Amino acid sequence: MPTLFYHAGACSLAPHIVLEWTQAPYEAVAVEFGSAELMAVNPAGAVPVLREDDGWTLTQAGAILHHLARKHPEADLTGGDELRAQAELDRWSSFFTGDLHPAFFPLFTPQRYTTRRDEADREAVQEAARKLVRKRLALLDAHLDGRDWILGRRSVIDAYAFPMLRWAGKLLPEGTQGWANVQALHDRIAADPAVQTVLAREEGA
Q1: Which of 1, 54, 4, 15 has the alpha carbon at shortest distance from 162?
Q2: How many whole angstroms separate alpha carbon 25 and alpha carbon 58?
Q3: Any idea what the Cα angle at residue 177 is, between residues 145 and 98, rounded to 5°?
Q4: What CA–CA distance (Å, rounded) separates 93 from 205?
Q5: Structure confidence by residue, pLDDT tens digits, 138-160
Q6: E strands of 32-146, at which residues?
């Protein structure tokens, strides 16, 4: 069966959720960054990695999510088959891949974004990142006004958003309470039984 290699709390949570939503058999394997097991399936050392039955592997969260949506049309996770619905899926996938996800990088590893090593400089880098995350969340919040789901109905894009909303809740001093629509989306996804199954698995890993 397909195997997902994931690291608890990482963006690999998104395809982990989608695999559970499809209700198709799969295996989930927890890996550590830099481990031989992870490097064997992805020399870049990043998660997620999806390995299909025939040994073919796919990396990059966005690509895996698109693949799973197309592989399991019965799960109805694309947001729609119309041309513009497909474009909206691509647009929001690009937003999370290229805008929101990278905004968190300086929060996780501020030392990569400055040549100085004093604490004040690292804090300045992180505060700049927090401001950028807030701007991205404001865009998402405005889009969600009047919508329960990012594409108007539940899709892989909502799963993609979820780990980043969890990061924002933990890494912003104010959490996500200031963006009511974003917080509502987070809570809606978190209440899903399949999501709760995945979170219990990852947190117990």
Answers
A1: 15
A2: 17
A3: 65
A4: 28
A5: 999 999 999 999 999 999 999 99
A6: 49-51, 57-59
Q: How many CB atoms lie within 10 A of CB 42?
A: 18
* Token pair 């809606």 in the structure block, residue: 188
Q: What is the pLDDT of residue 205?
A: 58
CA distance 101 to 104: 6
The pair of structure tokens assigned to 188 is 């809606």
Return the structure tokens found at 140. 């998402």
* Token representation of residue 65: 């999510």
For residue 130, give the nearest of 176, 95, 180 by alpha carbon. 176
Task: Report the alpha-carbon distance of residue 167 to residue 101 in Å, rounded.
Answer: 10
User: Which amino acid is present at 146?
Assistant: G
Residue 179: Cβ-neighbour burial (10 angstroms; 0-12, 13-18, 19+): buried
Which tokens sit at 145? 């006004």
